[in-house]
Amino acid sequence: MSARLLDGKGTAADIRSELVPRVAACTRRLGRPPTLGILLVGDDPASQVYVGTKSRAGAEIGLSVEVVSLPSTATLEAARQVVERFNASDDHDGILVQSPLPAALGPEAERALFDAIDPLKDVDGFHPANVGRLVQARPRFAPCTPAGILELLDRSGIELAGRRAVVIGRSQIVGKPVAMLLLHRHATVTICHSRTRELPAVAREAEILVAALGRPAFVTPEYVRPGATVVDVGINRVADAATIRDLLPADSPRLAAFAKRGALLIGDVHPAVADTAGAFTPVPGGVGPMTVAMLMVNTVRAAEIRLGVDG
Ligand code: NDP
Q1: Rounded to two decimals, what is the model's pTM?
Q2: Which CATH superfamily is domain 19-120+133-139+291-306 in?
């Protein structure tokens, strides 16, 4: 069996174009474009790439994106001041603190900064007030990756109500909120983590399987019920040639990209799962672009909330 590919890249492009008239309406009423403030601390290369992608996606649909970069030596207080400036600003509708933060800021830094964001500007949806609203099934800003997963499933016509969903991973940013969103759509949800026993057997019960654990190609066909919909959230940079040769068929066009760049992004799901699943999200081109599209949606929503159009 060859699985149907759920096209996150194309769906994200649709979502971005649907936003253009809403952006134009906000721009007319605000006298400026909806604006996202991003705080980037340190020099993590992946974070720099993500922030660049978000800025370009915003510019493409007419949003304004201001990136404030602080060096990895910055203090937590300096980072908090940037958040406070964005909070107080009438020119910023949405705020995002790019994670991960440098380890030197301490283990609680991420939580401290997420908590400092004005909940009405919290386009990542990580503030406790927004997490609470999500749990109560009245989200203001649903976190972008989980929201993107649900949007992709919906737009691909994957039914959720009454179906068995298994989520591998229980992080605050992916596993828990995606499980909650699936529950609100009447799926029967199991959340798995590193202490789950007999994980392959539990995963095999899923009609919808979400892999969000951060381990390259971990989910092999033995985890997958034939015909299941498999959502691969993982983004893992793999630079080891032998691993890449093991994972990809000899005629894969991605091998040329590996030879050129010396690394590839590999999901949490093994490519061989495509022969067992009924539908799956590719990496790259699946959940990643949906995450960025939902950030755009949330930023426009934040501007609409300011205008009293929404929320
Ligand atoms: P975290 O590291 O925060 O969480 C990983 C979760 O997976 C934990 O709950 C952990 O369990 C669980 N886990 C780890 N190993 C195992 C195992 N062997 N068996 C079962 N469960 C396991 O990761 P994130 O949720 O932040 O990210 C997950 C993946 O998604 C990463 O690859 C990340 O890069 C990617 N990602 C992709 C995004 C996108 O836009 N596509 C956005 C965000 C993340 P425990 O709690 O017990 O430790």
Answers
A1: 0.97
A2: Leucine Dehydrogenase, chain A, domain 1 (3.40.50.10860)
